[in-house]
Specification:
Elements (H helix, E strand, L loop, with lengths): L57 H5 L5 H9 L12 H27 L3 H14 L3 H5 L3 H20 L71 H6 L19
Length: about 260
Amino acid sequence: MSTLRADCGSCFGLCCVAPAFAKSADFAIDKPAGRPCPNLLTDFRCGIHETLRPHGFPGCTVFDCLGAGQQVAQVTYGGVSWRDEPGTATEMFDVFAVMRQLHEILWYLTEASAKAPADDVSTALKDVEERTNADAATLLETDVDALRLRVRPLLARTSETLRAGIRGKKDHRGADLIGAKLRKAALRGANLRGAYLIGADLTGADLREADLLGTDLRDANVRGADLTGALYLTQFQLNAAQGDESTSVSAGLIRPTHW
């Protein structure tokens, strides 16, 4: 999944310009959409990257574009930035929003294809990959919601197949588990799709092969938890959780520096 990993050095600082920031616990300032963050340097690097949290920007350390930034910068716009061609700025930022969603879908399909190969999954993966290489106009015409509806049953079937042999697996789809006390919980193979685990205590929990598609892990304590083989777990979900060196994660995911 190397192409689905953010490469800030090949981007135009799109995540620092395109979205709006609201002054809060996550961001120290208000920033309207389309305006560069004052910390963005001329080389598109962040001037406080190593100290984002102390400076009041923990929200930036959670975000991950899954490689959408460099795809837009280097493929869609051929390495010509919004600073080089200001007239492309608004369009480029809109394309980035679409590409970010396409890359998330690619992340899921790539995992599904690798773990449980199937012709329809491979076809969907190829179609989405082709879409990410399309021109800006085509990308902006993309019906992402329709694409998600097409992909959802494929991912669900893959999940069921991969978790079929796990006994006693729990079903917590869409459950409100905000702040839940789940220390050392046996959640291997659990269906936690769309569940709210904000601030939950998952210390030492067994989450191997759990389906975490769309699970909200903001500030969930996963210290000592085993997330090996967790399905559809993304880097931004991991970034939003609170873990440490004792948290086990699968290859392809990077242990957040702020843990």
